[in-house]
Amino acid sequence: MTTVAVLSLHSSPLALPGVGDSGGMNVYVRELVSSLAQAGVASTVYVRRWSDDLPAVVEVEPGFSVVHVDAGPVDLPKEKLESIVDEFVDGVRAHLVTAEPVDLIHANYWLSGLAGHRLKHEFELPLVSTFHTLARVKAITGDPEPEHRIEAEAEVIGCSDVILASGVAEADDLVAHYGARRDRIEIVPPGVDHAFFAPGDRAGARAALGLGDGRVLLFVGRIQPLKRLTLAVEVLALLDDPDAALVVVGGPSGTQGEAELAEALAIASARACATGCVIPPQPHHLLSTYYRAADVVLVPSRSESFGGRAGGRRLRHPGGGRCGRRVDDHRRARPDRASLVEGDGADAYAAAVAPILADPARAAELGAAAARRASTYTWSTTAGRLRRVYADLAARSPVRCG
After folding, report:
1. What is the model's pLDDT at position 226?
2. How many angstroms separate the CA atoms of 131 and 107, rounded?
3. pLDDT 10s digit of each residue in the chain, 402 long?
4. Conformational region of residue 108, where left means phi above 0, alpha means psi within -120 to 50, and beta covers everything else
5. Fewer beta carbons within 10 Å, N or C terminal of the chain?
6. Phi and psi of 269, rounded to 5°?
7. Sequence-distant (≥ 6) Cβ neighbours of residue 86 within 8 angstroms
8. Alpha-carbon distance 117 to 121, whole Å?
9. What's the CA dihedral at 272, 277, 278, 279 to 10 degrees?
10. DSSP labels for 75-108?
11. How many Å apart are CA 133 and CA 82, to the nearest integer?
12. Alpha carbon distance 114, 127 (integer Å)
């Protein structure tokens, strides 16, 4: 059996997505490691302790455990986590030397990559890296990151035995912006939990959520400038539909989250449009009900590494992978069938949304195509591909830096 040390320094698979810095990466790590366990790959996930009352170890299921590593104050903001990477490495090392030997390290996000790079050399283990977002790509779309993050990503990429990319576009970015060796990149898309995210009855979903018969636009995600909730509100205003409302599921995230939410509410008030309601983050499996209830799901993020639930400049009708249909101008991955938004502003989104709302047949066509496409993405397939990658790495010596 292959055994893996999975590093997820800043984002725990046990945390509720949408709270603080918890988001899609939480879901990715949780679903992936669970599927790997079922495929015969045992994983221990190392995360930074983010609450004082967390146990040292949580046995999630056979082959899937979470270790909470003490590294800095529990309330340390994400922007300062680089300062405690050394402490995190010390904690992971202390556990690794007393636990069953592992065959490789899988680091998620650049902060974990820094830790994984050190541990790779200390334990002479192969390193698999999944970045989820890339600083140079974020800068292109208007969200610049510090230069030291770019340098760190380049260093980790240069010494990773395998870099996982969710799609061809992300692989191309790794090569174009970081000089990654293409022979070290493996394209392994994430999956969809089809037990929850599948087409269903809209009327029943609305009844369960207490929503009326008016048109519902939905925004799901962490509230921060990158995700552009403010644009979603502007789209609703431009539609000028008194029967339409925007439902928001998520909470403020990062240092600018509260300001982003306040600006969105101010826009709604000034434009006299119905924001519907702002609902706190929900457990992942419950989001499918919101997706089914929506007429259109707006996901206008400036950039994302994979177009699953989130993807830059897109709309869904209704989304959640298998739950519906979308319109999109995502310049990266497109995991389901979509119509492109020609432009980046609220007017372009409104122009794309209006025809869908006015044409139920077209909306149904988009939804059916999305469901068919999403059905090809399963976590068992993802785990199977990664198991082969892991097995290959475990059988050869780790690469050296450079």
Report:
1. 75
2. 8
3. 689 999 999 989 998 766 656 667 888 999 999 999 999 999 999 999 999 999 999 999 999 999 999 999 999 988 899 999 999 999 999 999 999 999 999 999 999 999 999 999 999 999 999 999 999 998 887 788 899 999 999 999 999 999 999 999 999 999 999 999 999 999 999 988 887 887 888 889 898 888 888 888 898 888 877 788 888 888 888 887 888 888 888 877 777 878 888 777 777 777 666 655 777 778 878 888 998 888 888 888 876 665 544 333 333 334 333 344 344 333 333 434 445 566 678 888 888 888 888 888 888 888 888 888 888 899 999 999 999 999 999 888 888 886
4. beta
5. C
6. -65, -45
7. none
8. 7
9. -170
10. T--GGGGGGGHHHHHHHHHHHHTTS---SEEEEE
11. 16
12. 11
Nearest Cα to 48, choosing from 18, 90, 103? 90
Token digits for 128?
Answer: 């698999």
How many helices and strands in the chain, by DSSP H and E? 13, 15
Burial 84-96 (b: 16+ CB within 10 A, else e): bbeebbebbeeeb
Tell me which H or E stretch contains 353: helix 346-358
* H or E segment to which residue 379 belongs: helix 379-394
Q: What's the pLDDT at 328?
A: 38
Q: Tell me the CA end-to-end span of the chain in Å, nearest whole number.
A: 30
Alpha carbon separation from 185 to 38, 114, 182 (Å, rounded):
25, 18, 5
In whole angstroms, give the CA distance from residue 55 to residue 39.
Answer: 27
Type and span of the H or E element at 129: strand 127-130
63 contacts 41 by C-beta, under 8 angstroms: yes
Rounded to 5°, the CA angle 5-11-15 comes to 110
3-state helix, strand, coil in the chain (%, to 5): 45, 20, 40
Long-range contacts (CB closer than 8 Å, 24 or more residues apart) made by 136-139: 136/173, 136/177, 136/178, 137/173, 137/177, 137/303, 138/226, 138/302, 138/303
The stretches of 124-256 forming alpha helices (DSSP H) are 135-140, 147-159, 168-178, 202-209, 229-239
Distance (Å, whole) CA 319 – CA 216: 12
